[in-house]
Amino acid sequence: MKFFVDTADIDAIAELNDLGMVDGVTTNPSLILKSGRDILEVTREICDLVAGPVSAEVVALEADAMIAEGRKLAEIAENITVKVPLTWAGLKACKTLSGEGKMVNVTLCFSANQALLAAKAGATFISPFIGRLDDLNLDGMDLIADIRTIYDNYGFETQILAASIRSANHMKDAALIGADVATAPPGVIKSMASHALTDKGLAGFMADWEKTGQKIL
Q1: Cα 97 to chain center, whole Å?
Q2: Closest CA relative to residue 49, chosen from 13, 98, 75, 19
Q3: Active-site residue 83, yes or no?
Q4: Tell me, what's the pLDDT at 104?
């Protein structure tokens, strides 16, 4: 499973990228706001840092305007993925932009039917939002499983990009189901390394090492 980091924070991306934990980056208008940076400037900087796909989201609501914005964003770098919402207008934009050879990430997916439409429209990635479904007492992982089955049934090449990831358990479950990609905030990715028994075991080793009175360096 590929790891995309869901942030526009350059320092956070760089730290994970240095460890080989970044296969791509996803951004959205909320993350651009949080960064306090100009969208074109910060997106270009991310693309220079990361070799994999970098999702940059359109903000128009009509198809023609989405297409125009998508073309503008795609000029930033070759690894730009134009992000469009899963609306009828977004599907029209997806069809046009993917037909022009651009990578397209269709976002805000909450049903298997939506995911099927996105694949038919030529989406490179489909972004089902796990956490937001969980907030409604629905199991977001059920959606990932349904999409996986449908895509496998018909050989769709659209990659399942599990989004709205809230926890290390979400990452594990998405991997078990077979999501192609999971995008998560830096803190969630780093939390995957944590385990209480690791901490306990390390503390025991350090206590015993101290008793030896030895040094390695």
Answers
A1: 20
A2: 13
A3: yes
A4: 98
